[in-house]
Amino acid sequence: MCGIVGYTGPREAYPIIIKGLQRLEYRGYDSTGVALLNHGLHVFKKKGKVAELAETLVGENLHAHIGIGHTRWATHGEPSDRNAHPHTSASGKLAMIHNGIIENYAQLKQELIKKGYTFKSDTDTEVLLNFIEDIRKNNQCNLEEALRIALKRVTGAYVILLIDEDDPETIIAARKGSPLVIGIGKGEHFLGSDASPMLEYTKEVVYVNDYELAIVKPDQLILKNLGNEKITPFVQKLDIELAAIEKGGYDHFMLKEINEQADTVFDCLRGRLDAEKGTITMAGVENNIEKLTKANRIIIIACGTSWHAGLVAEYIFEELCRTPVEVEYASEFRYRNPVVHPGDVIFAISQSGETADTLVAIEKAKQQGAFIFGVVNVVGSSIARTSHAGAYTHAGPEIGVASTKAFTAQLAVLTMVALKIAKQKGTIDEERYMHLLQELHDIPAKIAEVLKSSEKIKLLAEKYKDARDFLYLGRGYNFPVALEGALKLKEISYIHAEGYPAAEMKHGPIALVDESLPVVFVATKDKYHEKVVSNMQEIKARKGRVISVVTEGDDHSASLSESIMPVPAADEIVAPMLSVIPLQLLAYYIGVMKGYDVDKPRNLAKSVTVE
Ligand code: M6R
After folding, report:
1. Confidence of residue 578 (pLDDT cuts 50, 70, 90)
2. For residue range 78-123, what is the model confidence (pLDDT) as tens digits?
3. 235: which of 255, 268, 457, 564 is 20 to 30 A away, CA to CA?
4. Which of 73, 254, 355 best tests ligand 1's pocket when mutated (most atoms within 8 Å of CB)?
């Protein structure tokens, strides 16, 4: 969480930083700040979004060739002007921005208070900054050395950018547990939480690793470890176009990303799936086929929407591969004492590849000898790099805080992996295998069909937008889809929604049902369909308002429903990639109609890099 940007070079720094912060706002948006060096340190910061700060700075002298900027997701200290980053040190000479949490900040703060330091904010960042300054003063060392000494005392996660009034060309950066990318231009360098702030200036980037320090000047980049040894930067070429991170005519990134899904799932299958020849090509699976087929157990770890994709995958792996599967919230797994054996395979699913809980859970499983297979969207991200093997989802940048296209791409990847393992293990017969390959192949065209119903779903949003609560129900493969539908609604419309297995409803949630409660059934035709129809009857009998995602032509389910959202027929294994789309659209339109900023829902951030 929190987005950071830095620039040093011949251009004007401020416009690069502000534009970069706008692109990183998905990471947090409760306050914004910029520090510029130009004959002294100039700090501008404010509670609120990037545009609000920019507006207040119109007419200010913002000329500078070096600067750092921050968009915040509050951890320590409420969102306010004084808690906004950058923070300045006691001497007023240093400015710092920080993404992460300094866990032992309270102890460091006490030490500094005893030495007479006072604090202007409630943040852990200001504590770390003064701690660094104090070390520099007491040890008579340079800033880089002081930072290195300080970081050895710090526990927690951080990316920090630091500038010094007395060194007006240099940004010093350090990373542990939060992402940092450095873009290399001609006589200039860019820094960011991801590559989006630098895309129009350079395609050459270096991903900084944990426990590395970067000393960044316009024409020089030095990477070092905490032991002060130089590291050769590994320069990579970015494979993202600018258009991929812009709205492209849509009102919101979320709507753009929902509408991209026919293409993103196609991109995910492209070059991998050949339904005619009956082949799936995935190097990450092929190179590790023995480990994957001989797995005693598969443990899937993820958070949020990625966890829902993991639940669908549980059903798929068990059905096709006959391997026992457990699906774990990374945030629970990491703090338990889980039983993991060397023969276990961990599937770590993450859009961002930076989710702190998932990263730590992976490390924990790794230490116990498990093999880690990452299913990740962001190329070069921490989870991608820490996994033993994996497969990218190739959904392109997902900027809307509510995850949409990442989910369908994750399902496409996980289904292909399961099919490959099942084929190798011999747990699937040839006819079913070929059938499922064809079904997967047909999904992008069917997604395009579902997306055509967008306007009809908008009408449903109008009809149901004032409901106080929603219930989402599904069975089998559609149960995780129900959970995902409820999560989407909660996140962007702030309506209370719960997802349940449809059959579980009678063990409690049915007590909620009355004539005002919309109950969304994910009721596409599958082997549980008759049972789901019975559950619909039960809700209808209690006057609940049944809304159903149904298979086209399913008149019976339609007759039991107050409203329907039809999707094309598909095998139950691939159907979640279709049935989730009306639910994404419903949540989107309700959020918009309620007047909320659906791309930046309150209290949330795209990449959860704190625990
Ligand atoms: O980047 P990840 O897939 O690891 O993120 C996991 C969750 O934080 C994420 O899915 C979150 O729940 C989304 N806001 C859901 O829309």
Report:
1. very high
2. 889 999 999 999 999 999 999 988 889 999 999 999 999 999 999 9
3. 268
4. 355
**Is there a catalytic annotation at residue 2?**
yes
Q: Residue 152 catalytic?
A: no
10 Å CB burial of residue 285 (0-12, 13-18, 19+) is buried
C-alpha 112/C-alpha 460 separation (Å) is 58
Helix, strand, coil percentages for the chain (3-state, nearest 5): 40, 25, 35
d(CA 201, CA 190): 9
CATH of 453-611, one of 1.20.140.10, 3.40.50.10490, 3.30.160.20, 3.60.110.10: 3.40.50.10490
Kind of pairing, strands 279-280 and 212-217?
Answer: unpaired
Ligand 1 atom with the smallest distance to the CA of 604 is: 14
Residues with CB under 6 A from ligand 1: 303-306, 350-352, 355, 358, 401-403, 487, 491, 604, 607-608
pLDDT band at 245 (very low <50, low <70, confident <90, very high): confident
Q: Does residue 1 surpass a pLDDT of 70?
A: no
DSSP conformation letters of 414-475: HHHHHHHHHHHHT-S-HHHHHHHHHHHHHHHHHHHHHHTTHHHHHHHHHHHTT-SEEEEEE-
Q: What burial letters (b/e) apply to 85-117, b meaning 16+ CB within 10 Å?
A: bbbbbbeebbbbbbbbbbeebeebbeebeeeeb
Q: Which atom of ligand 1 is nearest to the CA of 355?
A: 4
Q: Which of 608, 609, 611 to mutate to test the pocket of ligand 1 (most atoms within 8 A of CB)?
A: 608
Identity at 537, one-letter amino acid code? Q
Q: Given a cut of 70, is residue 610 above it in pLDDT?
A: no
Query: Does the pLDDT of residue 547 top 70, yes or no?
Result: yes
CA 606 – ligand 1 centroid, Å: 7
Q: Which residues of the chain form CATH 3.60.20.10?
A: 3-243
What pLDDT does 335 receive? 86
Peptide bond into 582 cis (omega under 30): no
Q: What is the pLDDT of residues 252-293, one digit of tens each?
A: 999 999 999 999 999 999 999 999 999 999 999 999 999 999
What does each C-alpha distance from 342 to 168, 217, 322, 346, 348 come to in angstroms? 52, 45, 19, 10, 16
Q: Say yes or no: domain 248-452 is CATH 3.30.70.1350.
A: no
Q: Which residue, 63, 130, 121, is CA-closest to 94?
A: 130
3-state secondary structure 112-143: HHHCCCCCCCCCHHHHHHHHHHHHHHHHCCCH
pTM score, two decimals? 0.81
Going across the sheet that includes 204-207, the strands are 41-47, 31-37, 66-72, 3-8, 189-192, 181-184, 204-207, 235-237
> 336-376: per-residue pLDDT in tens?
888 888 889 999 999 999 898 999 999 999 999 999 999 99
| Res 83: pLDDT | 92
C-alpha of residue 121 to centroid of ligand 1, in Å: 30
Distance 578 CA to ligand 1 centre (A): 20
Ligand 1 atom closest to 358 (CA): 4
CATH fourth-level superfamily of 3-243: Aminohydrolase, N-terminal nucleophile (Ntn) domain (3.60.20.10)
Fill in the DSSP letter of residue 245: G
Handedness of CA 280, 284, 286, 290 (dihedral sign): negative
